[in-house]
Amino acid sequence: MKTLLFDLDGTLSDPLVGISRSVNYALTSLGYAALPETEFAQYIGPPLDDTFKLVTGAPDAEIRQLIALYRERYAETGFAENTLYPGVEAALNALAQKGSPMGICTSKLAQFADKILRRFGIRDHFGFISGGDVGVTKQQQIARLLSDGTVDTQAWMIGDRSVDLMAAHANGIESVGVLWGYGSREELSNQLPRRLLERVDELPTLADLQSS
Question: What pairs with residue 103 in β-bridges?
């Protein structure tokens, strides 16, 4: 069956609290003003260095400092300030029972993703974790998964932001958008995904679509 590549933030879990507090810890540590939590939705999904560049306009050396400070807090407490969306565990169980191979493709460090998945007790559903880093795009991550044979072009990428869908299409694979995360219907629809899911409990239907 086709591998289902899941984004993590905004797709399987809601990371808003941990990300916003860790970003603000980094910003205030270097003298920048903290951002209101209500402004953070737009920053969940894209790579962290892009977020800090957009917010501060700082030079690359300072961006690296901000990222290091962010990761300092996130490694200690931020990863745990994360909530699994209701119904995700049941949906993953159903997909596993249908025989769907699954993996993670996230912009966050693989070690953070692993800690989060283990905290929720769902790590065993995923055969691999592709994590991002500074200067590494999700498009490059999927390209690497294809080139090393971890997945093939029959894989589907599932995510809540346009960056997930664009990365899939740039590599010639199908995409599925989810509407319970941080991307709007317009943002996702513009990328022409194979499916646009309204509810978490629709995830198991992907196994049936794969075999059709």
Answer: 5
Closest CA to 8 of 164, 192, 212, 185: 164
* CA dist., res. 111 & res. 115, Å (int): 6
Tokens coding 19:
């990300």
Residues of the chain with pLDDT under 70: 211-212
pLDDT in tens, 53-63: 999 999 999 99
Domains and CATH numbers, the chain: 4-14+84-210 (3.40.50.1000), 16-80 (1.10.150.240)
Decide: 43 and 22 in contact? Cβ < 8 Å.
no
Tokens of 130: 């592709």
What's the pTM? 0.93
pLDDT digits (tens, 9 = 90+) for 124-134: 999 999 999 88
Calculate the CA 40 to chain-centre distance.
15
What are the catalytic residues?
A: 7
Residue 208's Cβ-count burial label (10 Å; 0-12, 13-18, 19+) is exposed
User: Looking at the chain, how many residues does it have?
Assistant: 212
